Amino acid sequence: MAKGESLGEFEYLVLLAVLRLSDDAYGMRVRREIAERTQRDVTIGAVYATLDRLTAKGLINAELSDPTPERGGRAKRSFHLTGAGIQAVNRSRRELESMLEGLAFPLPRGSR
Amino acid sequence: MAKGESLGEFEYLVLLAVLRLSDDAYGMRVRREIAERTQRDVTIGAVYATLDRLTAKGLINAELSDPTPERGGRAKRSFHLTGAGIQAVNRSRRELESMLEGLAFPLPRGSR
DNA sequence: TTATTTTCTCTACTATGTAGAAATCGTGGC
DNA sequence: GCCACGATTTCTACATAGTAGAGAAAATAA
Question: What is the pLDDT, as a whole number, of residue A30?
Fold first, then answer.
């Protein structure tokens, strides 16, 4: 990428999911959020790999929460955006927006 | 990707550029369009590789135009979206939009 | 202590993104 | 014709991101 700064497509989705979920942003929940909203099936491995890479880049950081008192209530690793993460989202969003400018969606079938 | 259907980040940008440029969508011009709008530096190799991959997937198709009568006016290979390409753009856009829903941009620095 | 639930970890592989030099195909000048 | 030059495309190699799914952990319940 241009200086390794741009977000991948899925990275962007994950970041947005973490943002939306605020204090409830842990792996399984992030997976579900993306799956429900975008209607695609997201595997858990994809989510964690991305979460780890975003953490390594310093765009999010992890925090281990206490286990909840329910069956299978294992401790969750929850995430939130860092300042750099916020900037990255803003930038990606701006870039995408600038390419959409003036186009009307949905595009009609025979748009040509 | 989920069934290999989703567009990569750069693929999406390239598709949008091709769309915007309509009959003037050839490699160099696409490169410039993306560079100017998104403010990032895009190398020509990245553009052609992506254009080729999108062609292979049937999302755009190429057409060799006549050379223009100017110095260095070599024949251009220009592209336009296929029906599948239009659908792909619509879908990516819808997915992204659904993840943005309710968020206000730009995100404030201390959004957490 | 075994079953069951939820979440997380790990490994391997495929697809996308990136870079830049080199090849092509035109023009224009001598 | 031959050579310089400009615009565009092609090629090759490598880095990063996306995907998949089995399996390990950690908790509750019986």
Answer: 97
